TrEMBL record:
UniProt-listed Pfam families: DUF3336 (PF11815)
A biological process from GO: lipid metabolic process
Molecular function per GO: triacylglycerol lipase activity
Keywords in alphabetical order: Membrane, Transmembrane, Transmembrane helix
Residues annotated as transmembrane: 20-46
Protein name: Triacylglycerol lipase N-terminal domain-containing protein
Domain Triacylglycerol lipase N-terminal, first and last residues per copy: 53-160
Length: 162
């Protein structure tokens, strides 16, 4: 019987297993506690600081907006307050190829001004039918409230004009 317990102890290592389960539970509890405390601190800060109050007020106004124009105005103010307006204006980003996209915008605008309808149709068909240059990357649409990168919006407007 002693050899059986020694075999079970060496194969399954219950002491080690129990120790590892306790460590995992302690780590999970620590992470959950940190997350809760962090969320609570953010909530308290948002209620006590001027910036936090302004952000809450703008979000409330966005929810209560009755027109897109008023919603857009509040979203732009919120982006300025949170620093996302600068992110939108800066064309450089790892989420999309801004160099190729700017070249594409310039190329389509040149074709529109030159009146070359056949080449314009050829370029549009290739650009609209499949996602290119990373302009549909999820990260471009989840950061700012009022929109995405200005260059991506310019590309979309150029495609619509063409």
């Amino acid at each position: 019987e002693k050899w059986l317990w020694e075999a079970i102890d060496s194969v399954f290592a219950p002491k080690l297993l129990v120790r590892q389960v306790i460590i995992v539970l302690a780590l999970q509890t620590g992470v959950a506690s940190f997350s809760t405390i962090s969320n609570l601190a953010t909530l308290v800060a948002s209620r006590m600081t001027r910036k936090g109050k302004a952000i809450r007020n703008l979000k409330r106004q966005m929810r209560q907006a009755t027109t897109f124009a008023s919603w857009q105005k509040f979203a732009n103010h919120l982006d300025e307050l949170e620093g996302h307006a600068e992110w939108r204006k800066e064309p450089k980003c790892t989420l999309y190829d801004h160099v190729v996209l700017q070249h594409r915008i310039d190329e389509i605008q040149h074709l529109m001004h030159s009146g070359d309808v056949f080449s314009l149709m050829f370029h549009l068909r290739g650009g609209i039918s499949r996602p290119q240059y990373g302009v549909l990357h999820e990260g471009l649409f989840s950061r700012a409230h009022a929109g995405t990168k200005v260059m991506v919006e310019q590309y979309q407007r150029t495609l619509c004009q063409a």
